[in-house]
Design a protein that fits this description.
241 residues, alpha/beta, Rossmann fold, seven-stranded parallel beta sheet, 7 strands, 46% helix, SDR_fam, NAD(P)-bd_dom_sf
């Protein structure tokens, strides 16, 4: 039975991916940092899904996570590095604390999770990063968030080459505007949502399930000859501009 680890897997895209992979026969482990979302995931996800409270900023948590996953599954076939935070702000308003927090979670945390978990990944396995279209297309107020996610994207080609001898594929998925709890958390008004939707050729926001399907594909044998790529899941956002 294949096994997958999903960081940031208690809500939104990560949780939808966990549910989809579990339904397709995977053993699944998810991480989260917020106690409430972790508790909710433990209640609502299937009982055999491993839910681990782990803070990507804390390397001791990452080492403990690696040990827990090793003990439970032995090895992994898919590592979905999805954990991240988004604190939109103009450059002039970014504080050192906000800068450090986003770098620590979005880049440093994912880098060292990869480093610690990599020995558990089977040859022929798959690594998928969540990046986002803002890393390529740009969005006002997203400079820091795009930079920290974009740092992951910059790693993908080199990692793909480094891990090719083990036939481990390394790819990224870049959601566009996706209807997740983050929208409500950020307090995006209806007018702002309408303006965003108007720039999407498909005239709708993406869903967590839309992204989960792509992650599941990239982790499957059907994507066995795909590595070093970034797949946009954005309903055509940015085309024709």
């Amino acid at each position: 039975m294949p096994a997958a680890l999903i960081t940031g897997g208690t809500t939104g895209i990560g949780r939808a991916t966990a549910e989809l992979l579990h339904a397709r026969g995977y053993q699944v482990a998810v991480t989260g940092q917020n106690p409430e979302s972790v508790a909710r995931a433990r209640r609502e996800l299937p009982g055999d899904v491993l839910v681990v409270r782990s803070d990507a900023r804390v390397l001791a948590d990452t080492e403990a996570l690696t040990g827990t996953v090793s003990e439970r599954f032995g090895s992994l076939d898919l590592l979905f590095l999805n954990a991240g935070i988004f604190q939109p702000a103009p450059v002039a308003d970014v504080t050192e604390q906000s800068f450090d927090e986003q770098v620590d979670v979005n880049f440093k945390g994912q880098f060292f999770t990869l480093q610690k978990v990599l020995p558990l990944l089977n040859d022929g396995g798959s690594i998928v990063f969540t990046v986002g279209v803002a890393a390529r297309r740009g969005s006002p107020g997203a400079t820091l968030g795009a930079a920290t996610r974009g740092a992951l994207l910059a790693m993908v080609p080199s990692l793909a080459l480094e891990l090719a001898p083990r036939r481990i594929r390394v790819n990224a998925v870049s959601p566009g505007a996706t209807d997740t709890p983050l929208f409500d958390k950020l307090g995006v008004p209806q007018g702002g949502r309408d303006a965003m939707r108007a720039n999407i050729p498909f005239e709708r926001f993406g869903s967590s399930q839309d992204v989960a399907e792509v992650v599941a594909f990239l982790g499957s044998d059907a994507a066995g000859y795909i590595t070093g790529q970034d797949v946009a899941v954005a309903g055509g956002y940015g085309l024709g501009v």
